[in-house]
Specification:
alpha/beta; 3 helices
Length: 129
């Protein structure tokens, strides 16, 4: 659990209660200075998404990343797409899919459905999407 968070507990002053996660899910919080976020995100995504499928099966790892604003989400998504496209960048992650409140409901539903079905392995979201 993240610092200041209680899993499955009631939570006291200054604590957030995390919802129950399935045993195969992992929740991690990284508080990072703004200027270090792109490289840190890329490093985390590369290590997370390049791990083998769980149990040797077809289920490749998926990653959902939350941002506090749509602007930050769009900046990071554009940067990641550029890094993926650049030849010789060595970035081996799937293209990101966005999920935020400025999207039509049908687009949001499609993004979630694709993530659940593992058609999209990287979902960038705002917490109120």
């Amino acid at each position: 659990a993240a610092a200041g968070a209680v899993e499955g507990g009631k939570g006291g002053a200054g604590e957030r209660v995390l919802s129950a996660l399935p045993p195969t899910a992992k929740q991690v919080v990284h508080l990072t200075a703004q200027h270090k976020r792109p490289r840190k995100l890329l490093k985390i995504l590369t290590s997370t998404l390049s791990t083998p499928a769980s149990g040797g099966g077809r289920n490749k790892p998926r990653c959902m990343v939350f941002f506090s604003t749509i602007k930050e989400l769009k900046v990071q998504a554009a940067w990641l797409r550029r890094m993926i496209k650049e030849s010789g960048s060595g970035v081996d992650i799937p293209p990101p899919r966005e999920l935020h409140s400025q999207m039509r409901q049908s687009e949001r539903d499609r993004a979630v459905a694709e993530f659940k079905a593992a058609k999209t392995r990287l979902l960038l979201c705002t917490d109120v999407a």
